[in-house]
Amino acid sequence: MNDTSRSGGIRAAHQAQLDQGRFLIQHCSQCQRHIYFPRESCPHCGSEQVQLVAPSGLGTVHAVTTVRRKPEAGGDTNVSLVDLDEGVRLMSRIANLPVDAVRIGQRVQARVQIDGGAGLVVFDVVQDRTEHTP
Q: CA-CA distance, 1 to 63, in Å (whole number)?
């Protein structure tokens, strides 16, 4: 039996965990691969034997872009694709650096930020592994 046995389905169960400050991804018991964003069945092998598990949260910035916004709308922000060490890719933002300091290749750590009672996964840079060329 998978996580969908709970009222509201897997996405509701995932969001409920985020709202409590816990970041979880799925793991397939059949093919042993990790999955994110949570789904009813494994997109790799079709198995319904998927469970929510806690990832290490460590990853690497794969891509980044800047979204320009007026200061009264919160100012500029970054949108980043992060590859978790478990092999899944998330779209989020890097929260502990200025927008123009986020670089591809930086090592990051996930954390849950609660905003208005809703949990959201954001990342903080933990080690800068990018190489700068002259």
A: 36
Asked which of 69-78, 98-107, 110-119, 123-132 is least confident by mean pLDDT, the reply is 123-132
CB 2 within 8 A of CB 10: yes
Q: What percent of the chain has pLDDT over 70?
A: 89
- Cα–Cα distance measured from residue 68 to residue 48, given in angstroms and rounded to the nearest whole number: 41
Q: First-to-last CA distance in the chain?
A: 55
* Short-list 23, 3, 28, CA closest to 13: 3
